[in-house]
Amino acid sequence: MACCHADFAALEGSDRGFTLGMPTFTFGPGVLAEAGANAAELGLSRVALFTDRRLASGEHVAKVKASLADAKVDCIVYDEVLIEPNDKSFQDAARFAKESNVDGFVSVGGGSVMDTCKAANLYSSQPAEFMTYVNAPIGAGQRVPGPVKPHIACPTTSGTGSETTGIAIFTLTSMNAKTGIISRRLIPTVALVDPDVTRTLPANVVASTGFDCMSHALESMTARLYPRRLNPAQGIKRPVSQGANPFSDALATQALNGVGQFLVRAVKDASDAEARTEMMYAAMLAGIAFNAAGCHLPHGLSYAVSGLIKDWHVPGYPEGRTLLPHGMSVVLNNPSVWRATAPTHPERHLRCAEALGASARGATPDDAGEVLANRIIELMRATDMPNGIGELGFGEAQLDALAKGAEPQYRVIKNAPIDVGHAEIRELFRSALRYW
Ligand SMILES: NC(=O)c1ccc[n+]([C@@H]2O[C@H](COP(=O)([O-])OP(=O)(O)OC[C@H]3O[C@@H](n4cnc5c(N)ncnc54)[C@H](O)[C@@H]3O)[C@@H](O)[C@H]2O)c1
Ligand SMILES: [Fe+2]
Q1: What's the gap between Cα 114 and its chain centre?
Q2: If both were cysteines, with which of 9, 199, 357, 409 could 260 make a disulfide (CB 3.0 to 4.6 Å apart)?
Q3: What atom in ligand 1 is closest to the CA of residue 118?
Q4: Which residues line ligand 1 (CB under 6 A)?
Q5: Cα of 154 to ligand 1 centre, how many Å?
């Protein structure tokens, strides 16, 4: 593709192809009511419906249950999903799935619910010791050997894009580290993306998940380009996430347009249906993009922050335990990372900044990192995000622990356009302590 996509010119020995996976998706207000017809079309007669405690008694789950009943599809509900799941909660869910004798799955919830449902489907369809499929080097990273059951994913947050990805993320409690399972077989069969669900979202959830979506798009645009990836396995062994490619670029750019125009409005006004709909669409686009391109430093670093944080609570999220929302942990490292990576591809970073609504008129390649970082800081301030990881209680004294906490994430971090080790990661955290 050298003629129109000079960035992607093939190199000696590089992979000449890229593979995109995604579900059959339906987007539009009211499409949750299509769950039953989709289940019937897939030949399902009894499904496990996964959700969380808060959503279980609410209108979105009720709508999906009614639709399944209309289609004469039996449904058994699992509402014990842990928000920000861990290995134990994944295994509890898998046990439920094994015992419930279903022929398919429906998830109604945010990333925590959809990811838990993917794991339950996987371990009940292709039973194995838990660490078998977990990403190496933390787990054995074995390929999923066969198909899983059909999964209809109905997202209720506008950020993770998990309805489109082959990724299930959890915290491995024994290491206090986030990791995941990645396989094309985990991509839901059908996604029903209904923007009506966003009416009930608390402002903080819209903000955090919106920044998760933004970071998925930015990391897709700036990931190592696919002909330059470090693992050039090809054909059926090609990894799910292969680096930036022309398709992920197009989707990520459109997602950034949506975030730049609509995130602040969506956070500030729950009745702004246009803004909340556009954020739901952006999240889905960014999900398809990052599933193929892969995330890198902002996500890798965020996992160290969420693993080490103490005593942090955000209104709108479950009470009773320290919980740093995923999107909040991701955005706090963003400006620091873009200032460091911009020299590798200044024009890509400027393109991202412009897509997010920054004016890049007169900007030179040397300004790219600053222009992008400043636009993100503007969005963070407008949505009441913490002022860097310093506001979470981290200081100079914790920089080494944070850099060490990022070590289990080197697999993700290697997808970044710059090479980093302990010292560079420590510097990135130092630059993320305070932004204004
Ligand atoms: N698999 C992937 O591709 C992927 C991508 C990014 C993030 N993740 C993971 O997803 C998880 C985070 O998911 P999330 O940010 O979507 O949030 P979440 O699922 O953790 O939910 C956050 C809170 O919002 C509530 N909520 C959800 N929808 C609601 C609605 N419509 N109305 C009112 N309340 C609602 C939930 O009950 C919960 O209290 C993390 O574990 C993260 O690592 C996965
Ligand atoms: Fe994310």
Answers
A1: 11
A2: 357
A3: 1
A4: 52, 54-55, 83-85, 109-113, 115, 156-157, 159-162, 165, 167-169, 197, 200-201, 205, 209, 212, 317-318, 326-327
A5: 12
Best CA proximity match to 218, nearest among 171, 286, 276: 286
Q: Cα(306) to centroid of ligand 2, in Å?
A: 12
Percent of the chain whose predicted confidence (pLDDT) is above 90: 90
Has this prediction a pTM greater than 0.85?
yes
Taking the CB of residue 166, how many other CB atoms lie within 10 A of it?
23
| Matching residue, tokens 């911009």 | 342
Q: Of 52, 157, 303, 329, which is best to mutate to test ligand 1, by the most ligand atoms within 8 angstroms of its C-beta?
A: 157
In angstroms, the CA 35 to CA 190 distance is 9
Tell me the per-residue pLDDT of 85-129, one tens digit each, with 9 for 90 and over: 999 999 999 999 999 999 999 999 999 999 999 999 999 999 999
**How far is the centre of ligand 2, averaged over its atoms, from the C-alpha of 426 (Å)?**
21
Residues 154, 194 contacting (CB under 8 angstroms): yes
Question: How many angstroms separate the alpha carbon of residue 142 from the centre of ligand 2?
Answer: 23
Contact 192, 31 (CB under 8 A): yes
> In whole angstroms, what is the distance from residue 167 CA to residue 299 CA?
14
Residue nearest to atom 19 of ligand 1 (CA): 110
- Ligand 1 atom 43: the closest Cα is on which residue? 169
The DSSP bridge partners found for residue 104 are 47
- Report residue 352 as tokens: 């991202």
CB within 8 Å of 126: residues ≥ 6 apart: 133, 144, 145, 146, 148
